[in-house]
Amino acid sequence: MDPSCGLTDNRVSPPGSLHVTPPGGGVSSSHRKRRTLVAPEMNLSLDQSEGSLLSDDFLDTPDDLDINVDDIDTPDETDSLEFITNGNDLEWEDDAPVASAKAGPCGGSAEADGDGNANSGRLWRTVIIGEQEHRIDMQVIRPYLRVITHGGYYGEGLNAIIVFSACYLPDSSCPDYHYIMENLFLYVVSSLEMLVAEDYLIIYMNGATPRNKMPGISWLKKCYQMIDRRLRKNLKSLVIAHPTWFIRTVLAISRPFISVKFMNKIQYVHSLDELAALVPMEHVHVPECVVQFDEERMKAQRERMEQEQRQQKQSAQQEAVKKSERPKSVIVDQGL
Fold this sequence. Notes:
By secondary structure, this protein is an alpha/beta fold. 35% of the residues lie in helices and 17% in strands.
């Protein structure tokens, strides 16, 4: 543009390079000398020749890096397994993962794999009956676990006494009755296999059991059929305490599927005193309702016997009076 027009450009052109002076007036970066690090020669072969990765020069460690394994603190068995016993596992049920919390039997919330698995608030126990694996819902049968107990031993050896208290059975009108009885059946059979080592006898406490708690014929039949042959053979006696006409009728109807040998092992006792004469009662758990039933029954029996004795005494006195009056009438007739 023509300078005469007064529109001259006085702007300074931008620099083509930037000179940076470090603080303190040091040498600029452009004049600083660069140091070059030279890598040592390395042989990547797998032999143990000089310079190789497997040579002693590369494998040697300095003395300050020497590690003593004995000085290292390692967790004990309980610490290493804490995450297993206290953790939550996922188990597949009905094509969906279900959280399973596992704890010891003392906790009451769950049991180990051999004893049970707690899934969705349920307490499960896995048992093997007749070489088949079954799962028992322990949560639903918890109120009825006292139905079968160990009553100690009798005779010589490990002859077990098994007590079956029918008064602890569920009421037939309760919800899920068949489901409860199904799991209770598995519990009873598996308990027999655990409690019995040699010969044994069963005490069936029938007293104080209402009709709606009596087990059905199909349930008894299933129990008999699923009991192992060894248990059937080792059973020496089935003692039924306080039998009723109903239990006698059930046993009579069950004759077609019960062997004659088994029927011959059944004994009836009508009181706890008779039961004590057959087996030792030191460790036999007798339910309180059965004790009261036996006391009331024995009291009624004593009252009935006392009444019969009074009636017999009155009859004897009346007969004596009649006999004393007969001779007088004879003498009067002879005098006439």
